[in-house]
Hints:
Distance between the termini: 61 Å
Number of strands: 10
Largest sheet: 7 strands, antiparallel
Number of helices: 9
Shape: rod-shaped
Strand content: 5-15%
Order of helices and strands: HHHEEEEEEEHHHEHHEEH
Amino acid sequence: MAITVSYRTKLLVVFIAVALITNGISLSVMYGLSSHYLYEGYRAKMLSITATAATMLDGDELRKIQSRADEGTPAYAELRAALKRVRNANRRSDTYMKRVFTVIKAGDDPNGLTIAVDPEENPSIRAHAGEVYRPGKQQLAGIQQPVVEDDFITDEFGTFLRSWAPVRDHSGQIAGAVIVEAASSWVELKVRPILLSGLFSMLLAAVLAIPAALVTSRKTSAPLVELQTAVKRIGAGDFDTPLAVRSKDEFGQVAEAVNTMAIGLKERDRVKTTFARYVSHQVMDSILSSDQAVQLSGDRRRITVLFCDIRGFSTMSEQLPPEKVVKLLNDYFESMVEVVFRNNGTLDKFIGDGMMVIFGAPEDDPFQEEHALKTAIEMQRELK
């Protein structure tokens, strides 16, 4: 089943859709840029924190931490205290570092790493010296400068953004690395207000767009509704109610054209009504439906002519007042013309109280004589 949707509804939907799409694109761009700059800013902070932590650590002392047995040494305690200070100093509202710890090269394995010092107090997530560390694609030999990884990493402790910085000994050799991890949930938490404010602005734009679209669609569609009503009225034969022209734009021009059309149709209807008083409906319909213009020219053809008048009309009219005579003639001619048209006749002229009627013109009539005689008989019957 086909569903008819009004122009106003379509216009309303388009306005709201444009508002939502525009705000949606703006929100996407704003969210993307905000997330990018926040992410890059946070990476810069992590890089600075990691580099600062690396300069605070003694690489020669870090080399002494090889196994869990070394966790009781003064070197371990000093390094652990330094890492804890860095971690606690960077657990703020604007920056939150989840973990700060160090790693060293694992024996003869060029790619292997083990945990050295981890200041974490929670025993369930604390790593001990000598435990194998899985760095992923990152290798200690490749860390010559502080670096922040591009992607988040996921392990048994959660999802993190991770940064590295080399820890050097007194000779400048890399003794290990300090690793700083920031939870992805904290970064997402910072981006969330941007997303929520964007969604709120999008919702607000939609709420404001609905009444604006309603007003605009109503103003835009109102002339169309008036035009539709006017065209229906003209189609029903009412040519006397002009359409109001309220503007000079396209709607105003269409309204003027409709009014001009109504005037033309009114004149055409008047001509048709007047014409119908003198010719039969068959002749009139034939002329009006013809694609050719009416040619005022003569031709030779066989026709039948009927003359009639009222016997003793002169004497009768002398005895009646003029008003009575006019009414009598109107009633008489109305009845007689109806009989003529009923039998395919064409009224040629009125002659006083008489009539001249032709059959076989302007339309051919092969039974014109029969129709003429039938007309004469029916005239006499109608006269009674």
